Amino acid sequence: MKKKTGRMIGMALGILLLTGCGGRQVEETAGYVTADGSTSMEKVIGVLGESFEELHPEIRFTYNPTGSGSGITAVAEGRCDIGLSSRSLSEEERNKGLRETVLAYDGIAVIVHPDNPLSDMTIEQLAAVFTGEIQNWSEIGGADGEIVLIGREAGSGTRDGFENITKTAGSCRYRQELTSTGDVITTVAANPHAIGYASLASLKGQVKAVCINGIAPNAQSLRDGSYAVQRPFVLVTREKAEISPAAQAFFDYIQSEDAREIISGTGVVPAD
């Protein structure tokens, strides 16, 4: 009799655990969602993950900010549910069976120390600075001093976007190549002669973002396309492999209308 009663209680608890608010069944989505990739997407994906977990307490979301290239590799090798990239997939990556979904658009801010008097650059000046053609701030209206170039490591989506837009791929003469957006911001903030680039969504008051071709990087200039140095935030999945119900629930949520306001609040523009 005791054994029978125990089995009945266990069954009842099982039913309760599998039933969500309003009787909604959650057994198909309970579990884990793993994402890996772009450090530039850390802010937006972090707040989306927190919001998702509040709505789905039965699901645990984890994100490993390793860089766009690493995230693309991780999803290709089946080591995570969703890869995060701050650049579009290459033709070679698409041919490997990967699919991209644009989540949002982010500006790549060109950043200098707050004390730097420079406020505007053209794309041409930007290219000349990063390739070493221009080496002193006085040549472009700044104070006399050697320009110190700070960039990202090979494989970074931010670097790929910046170099493609400025047509400087393979030609930049970086003093330092750093492995995260935060490291670039911190390094530029500590050196009055430094210049670098970073996700607009990641900026705080530590550095100053200069205008490009007279246009400041902000949500409006991203939305209307007038700010020239911008790139997509991309979700990467495998074309012929189904993701778990939990991962699908997260994937659908962050593209929903409810998520758009959250995305906008991080300083990037939601994709249409």
Structural account:
It comes from Moryella indoligenes. With 272 residues, the protein is α/β, with parallel strands linked by helices. Helix content is 35%, strand content 24%. The protein is built from ten helices and twelve strands. It has helices at 2-17, 42-55, 68-76, 91-95, 123-130, 157-166, 181-189, 219-223, 245-253, 257-265, and strands at residues 31-37, 59-65, 82-85, 98-112, 120-121, 148-152, 176-178, 194-199, 208-209, 211-212, 230-238, 269-270. Strands 1, 2, 3, 4, 6, 7, 8, 9, 11 and 12 form a ten-stranded mixed β-sheet that branches. Helix 6 links the parallel strand 6 and strand 7.
Draw up the topology in text.
Layout (H helix, E strand, L loop, with lengths): L1 H16 L13 E7 L4 H14 L3 E7 L2 H9 L5 E4 L5 H5 L2 E15 L7 E2 L1 H8 L17 E5 L4 H10 L9 E3 L2 H9 L4 E6 L8 E2 L1 E2 L6 H5 L6 E9 L6 H9 L3 H9 L3 E2 L2
Parallel strand pairs: 1-2, 1-3, 5-10, 6-7, 6-8
Antiparallel strand pairs: 3-11, 4-8, 4-9, 4-11, 4-12
Subunit structure: The complex is composed of two ATP-binding proteins (PstB), two transmembrane proteins (PstC and PstA) and a solute-binding protein (PstS).
InterPro entries: PBP_domain (IPR024370), Phosphate_ABC_transporter (IPR050811)
Family: Belongs to the PstS family.
